[in-house]
Amino acid sequence: MKKMMMILAIIFAIMPSVSHANHTHNWEDLDIVADQALQLVKQQKYEDASKLLSYFSDQFSKLLSHESMLSMDELRIITATYEDASLALTTISMPHEERVQSVTTFRLVVDAIESEHQPLWTEMEGSVMTTFQSMKEAVSEGNSQHFNHQLNEFLGKYQMIYPSVRLDLEAEDSQRIDSFVTFLDKYRGEFLTNDSKMDHMNVIEEELTRMFKQMKKDDADPSLIWVMISTGSAIILTLTYVGWRKYKGDKEKHAARKRLND
């Protein structure tokens, strides 16, 4: 009876990690498909990329029919970015750069769902912050033309990563950052004449820095640690029990041989 309890303990401890491993493996396959589609778009092979996105949709639907692994927010975001990416590949008049941006946004979302730590969108920190610094310098110098040019470039990069940011950050944090950026874009016409313009720029810079820094923390998932502890403890207990039984059995055999020899 005790041995059976030990085995059951191991099974229940391992089951969550096995389920997670299956989900991770399936999503990694979709992540690869999304990445391949992006590479084809960069090579201007739009028709081939569109076929890959259709394949992604089929496999994604099959995955959802077997397991419910996404929240409603995640499902809405990945659906919206997928539709934008698909539309970008079938809109003949869309410039190449915008096609790449749309598919990149989708690809980053797929990765954000699959990655537990340091998602792919955080690798754009250098590019985003460099553009922001150029924009900040234009604000400081009062250069309206340069400011608008850099703001447009910054918004393009920001909008490319924002859906992924929504997935990875708490709603309050992502909405706070977005409100500052939206204000900057909405009032760009009179922004340079605002007395508190540099204060606003400094706040945005702090929020962006915090955003990237928060996602680069390589902390272990507490739930994963609990699974490891539970699984490890069950295995150790089982091995201890098996070892004790073996020791007891050997001891009894030795005693039996001794009695036989006597």
Automatic annotation (TrEMBL):
The chain crosses the membrane at residues 224-244. This is Sporulation protein YpjB. Keywords: Membrane, Signal, Transmembrane, Transmembrane helix. Coiled coil: none annotated. Residues 1-21 form the signal peptide. Pfam families: Spore_YpjB. It comes from Bacillus salitolerans. InterPro entries: Spore_YpjB.
